[in-house]
Design brief:
By secondary structure, the protein is an alpha/beta fold. 36% of the residues lie in helices and 18% in strands. The strands form three sheets. Strands 3-4-2-5-6-1-7 form a seven-stranded parallel beta sheet, with helices on both faces. Strands 10-11-9-12-13-8-14 form a seven-stranded parallel beta sheet, sandwiched between helices. Helix 6 packs across helix 8 and helix 10 crosses helix 11. The radius of gyration is 23 Å and the shape is globular. The N and C termini lie far apart (49 Å).
C-alpha cells in the first residue's frame, strides 16, 4: 500500500487529502494508517517531518461523528507551536466535513476566550498542551468522557518537560475503550512504561528519519576542553560561515550563555528554550525563519516544531545522552536532497557517548584535529536580513501585500530587498536587507500603511 487512494477513507476526508496534494504515503503513514483506520492502538517511533500528523489526523477524523456535539478526539503536544501546527493540519484535512469544530487549548494564551469557546459548545477535536488541558478539565469546562481517540504526539518531549503527571490524570478521565496513538521521536524507558499503561496490544511502528544519519550529512567531531567550548564554537561557525545554523545545548542555562557569547563575536545569534514567554519564542522563530538571525541556540524541547527546510548546519554544543536524539538533531540539516553538515563538540567526559554513535553509523567517526583561529570580538558575519516589527496585524485587517506595497511604494525599496512577511493577530514582521533596514524603518514611521500610521520598530 503506497497511495492514499488505496486507503479505506470516508468520502468526507477525500477533499482534504486532495487539497493538500497527498498522493503517495510516507513510510510512517504506510505502516501505521491501515492499523489506525482499523481501530488498533499504535505506538510509533517517527521523527518530525515524517508525515505522522496526517497519519493520526486522518485516523481520528475517520472515527468522528460530526452530528455528535462533544469532544471525541484529543491530541496532546509538548509545545504551543507544535499544537498550533497540528490543529491547522487537522482543519485542512477536515475541509470536507461540515461544521467540524477543532479547538486549540494551550498555555501562554488567554484563558477567558478558551473557556468561552468551550461553554458555547463542545468541540469535536481538542488539540492542546497537557497543562492547559488539565486545568480546563479540572474546572469541569472540558469534558473528556466522549473521547474516542487519544493521541500523544512527541511523547518523549512531553515527559522531558515534566508533563507525566498531567498526562496520566488526563488519560484517567478518558474512556477505557478509546483508541490510543503514541508518537515519539525516541523510545526511552519512560515512554515504554507509559505505553504499557496506556495502550492495548498496540501495533509497533518504527520509521527511520527520512534524513538518515548515514547519507547526505557530513558528520564531524571535535574534542575540546570544557573551558574552551564557547570559543571553539565561535571558531567553527566563523570558519564554516553557514547561512543558517542551529546549535543544540542540553540545558536552558547553556542556551542563554552560548547565544550571548556568539553575539559578542558578532553573530546574529538568539536563544530558544521552553521557559521563554510565548511572544518572545514566536519572535525568535520568525527571525530565524526570515534570515535575520543566522544562529539559533536551542534546547531539544524548544526546537520541536521548528520547520526549516534548508538548514545549512547543525552544531552539538553538548552531545545528547542517547543516539536517537543525536540522529534526530542532525537530521534537521541535509533535507530535500541537499548536503548537510553536523559538527559535534566533545569534551573528554563525553567521549564515551561517541561509541554508541559510531556503532549506529557502522563506520569510524571523523575526528578533526585542531581548531580554526578564533574570531575577534564583533568580527563574525551578521545575518543578511533585519526584522521590522509593526504593531498591527490580522485584527487590523493588515495583509502581506499592504506591507510590501508600503515598502516598495512610499519607502522606495526594491522588491528584492524585502524578505519574508509574517502576520499575527496584533503584530506583523517583515525582513528587510540589513543595509536597507534603517531606510525602511524611517520611511514606514514617517509614512502610512494602508492609509494608517502604525508603530514600527527594528528588533
Amino acid at each position: 500500500m503506497s497511495e492514499f487512494s488505496t486507503l479505506p477513507l470516508l468520502d468526507g476526508l477525500r477533499p482534504g487529502v486532495e487539497a493538500l496534494g497527498y498522493t503517495h504515503l510516507t513510510p510512517v503513514q504506510a505502516e501505521s494508517l491501515p492499523a489506525i483506520l482499523a481501530g488498533r492502538d499504535v505506538i510509533a517511533q517517527a521523527p518530525t517531518g515524517s508525515g505522522k500528523t496526517a497519519a493520526f489526523g486522518l485516523g481520528l477524523l475517520q472515527r468522528l461523528d460530526p452530528a455528535l456535539i462533544r469532544a471525541q478526539a484529543l491530541v496532546l503536544c509538548p509545545t504551543r507551536e507544535l499544537a498550533d501546527q497540528v490543529a491547522q493540519q487537522i482543519r485542512k484535512l477536515a475541509i470536507g466535513i461540515p461544521n467540524l469544530k477543532v479547538t486549540l487549548l494551550c498555555g501562554g494564551m488567554p484563558l477567558g476566550p478558551q473557556i468561552a469557546s468551550l461553554e458555547a459548545h463542545d468541540p469535536h477535536v481538542v488539540v492542546g498542551t497537557p497543562g492547559r488541558v488539565q486545568e480546563l478539565m479540572r474546572k469541569k469546562i472540558l469534558h473528556l468522557g466522549g473521547i474516542r481517540t487519544l493521541v500523544l504526539d512527541e511523547a518523549d518531549r512531553m515527559l522531558d518537560m515534566g508533563f507525566e503527571e498531567p498526562i496520566r490524570e488526563i488519560i484517567g478521565r478518558t474512556p477505557p475503550d478509546r483508541q490510543s496513538l503514541l508518537f515519539s521521536a525516541t523510545f526511552p524507558d519512560a515512554i515504554r512504561i507509559m505505553a504499557r499503561a496506556t495502550l492495548r496490544e498496540p501495533v509497533e511502528v518504527t520509521v527511520a528519519a527520512p534524513e538518515d544519519a548515514r547519507t547526505g550529512i557530513e558528520q564531524r567531531f571535535v574534542e575540546v576542553e570544557p573551558v574552551r567550548k564557547q570559543v571553539a564554537l565561535a571558531s567553527l561557525l566563523a570558519a564554516q560561515r553557514p547561512e543558517s545554523a542551529v546549535v543544540f545545548c542540553n540545558t536552558r542555562k547553556d542556551t542563554d550563555e552560548v547565544a550571548t557569547s556568539l553575539q559578542h563575536f558578532g553573530f546574529s545569534a538568539l536563544a530558544l528554550h521552553g521557559e521563554m514567554e510565548q511572544r518572545d519564542r514566536e519572535e525568535v522563530l520568525v527571525r530565524f525563519a526570515n534570515r535575520s538571525c543566522n544562529v539559533l541556540v536551542a534546547s531539544d524541547v524548544a526546537a520541536r516544531g521548528l520547520d526549516i527546510d534548508d538548514l545549512a548546519a547543525v552544531f552539538n554544543y553538548d552531545l545528547p545522552s542517547d543516539v536517537d536524539t543525536y540522529v534526530h538533531r542532525i537530521g534537521r540539516t541535509g533535507r530535500a536532497g541537499r548536503d548537510g553538515l553536523a559538527i559535534s563538540l566533545v569534551t573528554p567526559r563525553e567521549r564515551p557517548r561517541t561509541a554508541a554513535i559510531e556503532e549506529r553509523l557502522g563506520q569510524p567517526l571523523r575526528w578533526d584535529r585542531g581548531l580554526p583561529p578564533a574570531p575577534r570580538a564583533g568580527s563574525a558575519p551578521p545575518a543578511s536580513m533585519s526584522t521590522l516589527r509593526i504593531d498591527a496585524g490580522k485584527t487590523d485587517k493588515l495583509r502581506p501585500g499592504d506591507i510590501l506595497g508600503a515598502l516598495t511604494g512610499d519607502a522606495g525599496l526594491p522588491g528584492t530587498a524585502i524578505g519574508k512577511i509574517a502576520i499575527f493577530a496584533t503584530r506583523s514582521y517583515v525582513a528587510v536587507e540589513r543595509g536597507k533596514a534603517a531606510q525602511a524603518l524611517a520611511r514606514l514611521n514617517a509614512g502610512r500603511i494602508k492609509g494608517r500610521s502604525f508603530r514600527v520598530r527594528r528588533i
